[in-house]
Amino acid sequence: MERSKESGLPVNLGGYAAGRVLRLKDVQALLGVGRSTIYDWLSQKSPRYNDAFPRPIKLSTTSRGAIGWLEADVVRWVESCKTFAVNT
Predict the structure, then answer these.
(1) How far apart are CA 10 and CA 63, in angstroms?
(2) 17 in a structural domain
(3) 11 occurs within a structural domain
(4) What is the pLDDT along the chain (88 residues), one digit of tens a residue?
(5) Range of the domain at 36
(6) Exposure string (b/e) for 20-55, b if CB count within 10 Å is 16 or more?
(7) CA separation for the pair 62, 27 (Å, rounded)
(8) N or C: which terminus of the chain has fewer CB atoms within 10 Å of its end residue's CB?
(9) Total structural domains in the chain?
(10) Closest CA to 53 of 23, 31, 25, 26
(11) What pTM was computed for the model?
């Protein structure tokens, strides 16, 4: 797997290029999980809350506007999960 010299993150992960902003459907496809799982990971009120999961960024100025995730953050989170799984 080709990695970025600056970040050490994969440059290409299944067609996703590092440095992109991923929308919800992209994150779902990359992780193989549903929309509700992602929102559960983000909600502190959920029993499935995951404080390590990257927070989305706002892509618009309206309160109910578009959000996205930095691909590098999502890939880094996946890599940290792999590391945790190997070490346990």
Answers:
(1) 33
(2) no
(3) no
(4) 556 555 555 555 555 555 789 999 999 999 999 999 999 999 999 999 999 999 999 999 888 899 999 999 999 999 998 876 666 6
(5) 23-87
(6) eebeeebbeebbeeeeebbebbbeeeeeeeeeebbe
(7) 22
(8) C
(9) 1
(10) 31
(11) 0.72
